[in-house]
Design brief:
alpha+beta, 5 strands, Butyryl-CoA Dehydrogenase, subunit A, domain 3, 5 helices, elongated
Length: about 190
């Protein structure tokens, strides 16, 4: 972030994490059958199964389980705090005099987001495989992967937001450029 125009990279990355979080929250691919016949799929909110010859899915809510509510709540709380951090980052980088302590606070909140999301992402597969009968070969799939991708981006942004005040002068452009000049006697090949 050595230039003033580059300051929008971090809010842009937070926006990307929000998009991946939305995909994870809405996606039905947290757990899916690995191969045909596709007899099981699950989202953060429900688990669906069907027979090998049946075309209709039979779904049960994961909100009936304590661990299902816990996984959904922790991931959702982390997502809401992420949206708040995104709004704060846009505000922080929009003002001319950047408040670097404010930026460091956003980084701290992002670590809280990561903690909540990791808790939800760990509770889900552990308890799901313990309490829901699995049919066939299954895998944790694309929507679950988007949840982890969002969390990894949040962790990276948290480090950058926390470290950004260390480069305050570079970001604000307060450092004079350094010119390297050598005299003709020292470098005769320049003539």
């Amino acid at each position: 972030l050595a230039c003033w125009r580059c300051r929008w990279l971090l809010p842009l990355l937070l926006g990307l994490a929000i998009i991946m979080g939305i995909i994870a929250l809405a996606g039905r691919g947290w757990l899916e059958s690995e191969s045909q016949p596709y007899v099981q799929q699950a989202s953060l909110w429900e688990s669906c199964t069907r027979g090998e010859e049946d075309l209709n899915w039979s779904c049960e809510s994961l909100m009936d389980y304590g661990w299902g509510r816990a996984a959904a709540a922790t991931y959702l709380v982390g997502f809401v705090i992420l949206v708040i951090c995104f709004a704060l980052a846009v505000i922080a980088f929009s003002i001319e005099i950047l408040r670097f302590n404010f930026v460091r606070g956003i980084g701290g909140l992002l670590f809280v987001v990561a903690a909540f999301q990791i808790i939800g992402l760990v509770i889900y597969p552990v308890k799901f495989t313990e309490e829901i009968p699995l049919m066939g070969d299954n895998m944790f799939s694309w929507a679950y992967g988007f949840g982890w991708a969002s969390t990894v981006v949040v962790i990276g942004c948290a480090f950058f937001f926390c470290c950004l005040p260390n480069w305050e002068d570079e970001v604000l452009g307060n450092i004079k450029p350094t010119y390297y000049y050598s005299s003709p006697e020292r470098a005769p090949y320049l003539n």
